[in-house]
Fold these 2 entries.
Entry 1:
Amino acid sequence: MTRIIAFVTLIFLGFAALGACGGESGEPTTGSSAAGSAPGTSASTPKAEVVLSGLRNPSGVSFSPQGLLTVCDSGHGKVIVVEKGKPRDQITGFATEFWKVDKESGAKRFQLGPLTALWKDSVLVVTDGGVGDGAETLAFFEHPGDAATGRRSPPVKSLEDDPSKPGEGNLTGGSIDPNTGEIFLCGHGDDSKTWILRYDWRAGALEKWASSDDNGITVNSPMQTLVESPDHLLVLYSGAGGKEDGLVVRWDRKTRKPLKSWTLPGLVDPMGMARKRGQDQLYLVDNNWALTEVKSGKLARVSLGDEEAAKVEILPLDLRGPVSCAFGPDGRLYVAQLGVAIDAENGEVLAISGL
Ligand SMILES: [Ca+2]
Ligand SMILES: [Ca+2]
């Protein structure tokens, strides 16, 4: 289990570290310079534009009902909203923690705070990954302000039959059902179970929705949920860091059982998943996780067919440690990525057109 925990943590860190880039001040900036496009690409190939930089280990990206880009600047412990091209601090003051502290040197790595931020109408729902497993909650905000002002859900504690196991943490990869408001999240606490979590508004509780391990899914590190339909939930697993073992699983929302899974040939550590309205295909970002550096990542167009393996088309685009992605109302794919280094102000969000 220790190995699994380490792995999950690595993946998580990679996710959080994604956004650290930017100006010397550490403040987020926006820019319009073209960046990230592979050389020799034509007008028909994807093009990337930097729309937000200066982030420290960024994490989840999403959009408000009004279409405003919403980003977890995780290492800075805040959530940023971009309106008319200008970033503003929406919620600040979240706790942060370092994922790894070297026992010998004391060196700290991967500063993490909020990992997912989603809107339910005018309420911003944020996970506070910067506290310990078993203490993490959802926080609800009706106005901009300090993290302490948010109403909190109860945390998800450890398994009842073994109090020694950690509670659920690293509440990441959230998605929301636009009709019911249900929120699904990936938990990284009890790795012997690898829970998918659900927030039920009526009950006001975050519950252990389904255990991947109990359902025969041995690949670890769920990183992104995606409400596919009233009947189906997709979950992306990135598996072991640096190993080509990622998986997409379609779950039956009524029975809470997996219906089908697909391997992802050519992808190493996929962490972000989005579907463009009106398209059947998925877009996945591959972080290509490593503990010591931020490696080149990939963007892939993925088709889930009848075969065991998904059809994976790698798109010609240079990414650096991508961790999360979401389509905006303008039809572009917004990708949060770590940038050239973790724990630095060089994380950014790219807007990718031509998909
Ligand atoms: Ca945590
Ligand atoms: Ca992997």
Note: Residues 238-240, 243, 245-246, 268-269 surround calcium ion (ligand 2) (CB under 6 Å).
Entry 2:
Amino acid sequence: MGIKDKDLNQMKIYRKNISLKLSDLEKKEDVKAYLRLTKMLKEADSAYDNLVYSSKLDEYDSCEHLIVLFDDDYDWYEGRHNYKYGCLKCGLNTYTFDNNYNFSIVDKANNEYMRRCHCEWLDGTYVYNNTYYDTYNKFLRAKELYSLFRSKDTLISDEMILKMIEETINKEKEKLKNKEYVVYNN
Ligand SMILES: [Zn+2]
């Protein structure tokens, strides 16, 4: 018997011992309950995801979109913009659709919706008042702020909210700059 065969044999016995111990454990009432609950939790997670997914699709469908423009990785070297579009109300956007790597359940709904509707309207044509943010993160922050301001006042106009968003983002930018200045000077 070669060394590898011996190792294989030992590993086989080792694995069998572990699985025997596991089956013994699985006969205990506590462990049975644990396994049952784990399975239920997994099912509940998946049902929850399905609900989030379909309610997101409904939201995209019923939203009166407020489309803005933002940049995805401005190429300083080439001086080239890579424009993307998104809605500040429901979050539907072309960034998630074009960058197929981050898959939360909301991302999946976004991409599925974009695939289904072909969304010709989600392009430069419908950008509200030339609203522009220079990064994807600023778009996300603007969306967050839109929800915040809208939840505080349902009657205020979109135009007003956009101004408030701009002010807030500028203030945050200033704050960050001052912080960097302090760090640099210490
Ligand atoms: Zn929308």
Note: The first helix runs from residue 3 to 26.
